[in-house]
């Protein structure tokens, strides 16, 4: 294909997508992503990050705005999408793709805000979600291919060396495409919305472990939605923003950026199966999923385990021996291992200030040694964790329930949804909502779902 037509090709293929002709397994996975995202969103609406945002945006309230979930506020669509994106990512609980990025929050947030305003149908909602996710995944795969080749030449590119946080960079483009489809923008306007959104790619990994990390996803959601509206209003941009000189591909991938991945991916809608998505069982960083799964094997020993030695991949930002708050704790090898051993379980309360500062936890943290081992793969799909106790017990794991190699069962998916939404609905009610999501393309189910959400 002519490299100069990549952006236009993506938009044309996305617009022409017929979800009735997509493989049933891909449709099912996309609905599970939606269900997981809605569950995590509702849990995240009760997180302190979201509470701060709701208080901040109170002065922006508009009489006929979107009823923001679990609040008394009515806001415009952009502010609503921003809050939703932050809420979904506030606990690092949303699914993970390979190469690493969080694809759900930047896409679900704007199209949900649009749906709450009365825009779209169940079919259009599902289609917009799927193409937005695929676009993000393709951008990430194309850039990662460049990272790998550049690393071999000792010339690393952005995601490995320069410290961009992936969802903040791919998210605005995916959001722009999904939002434009929901709004039925003309093809030319959709192309230009991607051009506008590309100039908003941002997010530094140096903010991992703080509340700002969640803002990366909220800003991506907002940027894409606003870019689609700006394009419709007549703001122009490059129509070849991915492939042009100084465009997204060159800036975030350099000379090895795999433009063909963008053509192939949107043609086949392949990200839902290749490699698919890892769903998180616990509200913490992806490497912590493996850490917790390993540590739980030692929980029967309890406090007698300590001191312990943890061998982990070289994730320096996860070496947090004494995290100062719940946000840091979700990225601490030491803390997650200690909690899993002491409590025998992990849930959202595991990251509370009370739990973090408890005497048993603080005492145990003082007897943890972490070895960042360069021989352990950093790839989330291949990494492993080893925990050794002082008296010779050893536990090792390279997976968790939800990992690419050990997917969650439907029962486990439902249980996560129940746990995320239990402060809103009974288990029976949550099951009904789940059924509506898993058949969202049906008109009545979409209407019922939106009515239920709008009433929260």
List its traits.
456 residues; mainly alpha; 2-methylcitrate dehydratase PrpD; 2 domains; 4-stranded mixed beta sheet; 20 helices; globular
Strand order of the largest sheet: 4-3-5-6
SS-based class = mainly alpha
Number of domains: 2
Pattern of helices and strands: HHHEEHHHHHHHHHHEHHHHEEEHHH
Helix content: 40-55%
Query: From the alpha-carbon coordinates, what is the Rg to the nearest angstrom?
Result: 22 Å
Per the CATH scheme, the topology name of the largest domain is 2-methylcitrate dehydratase PrpD
Could you give the count of β-strands? 6
Quick structural gist:
The chain is built from 20 helices and 6 strands.
Structure, explained:
The structure is a single chain. With 456 residues, the chain is mostly helical. It folds into two domains: 3-268, 2-methylcitrate dehydratase PrpD (Orthogonal Bundle); 286-397, 2-methylcitrate dehydratase PrpD (60s Ribosomal Protein L30, Chain: A, 2-Layer Sandwich), CATH 3.30.1330.120. Helices cover 53% and strands 5% of the residues. It is built from 20 helices and six strands. It has helices spanning 6-16, 24-44, 48-56, 77-89, 104-116, 122-152, 158-162, 166-182, 187-198, 212-232, 248-253, 259-268, 286-295, 326-329, 333-343, 353-356, 359-365, 410-421, 427-437, 443-454; strands spanning 66-67, 74-75, 308-312, 368-372, 385-389, 394-397. The strands form two sheets. It has a four-stranded mixed beta sheet, with helices on one face. Strands 1-2 form a two-stranded antiparallel ribbon. Strand 5 and strand 6 form a beta hairpin. The protein is globular and about 65 Å long. The protein starts with 5 loop residues before the first helix and ends with a helix.
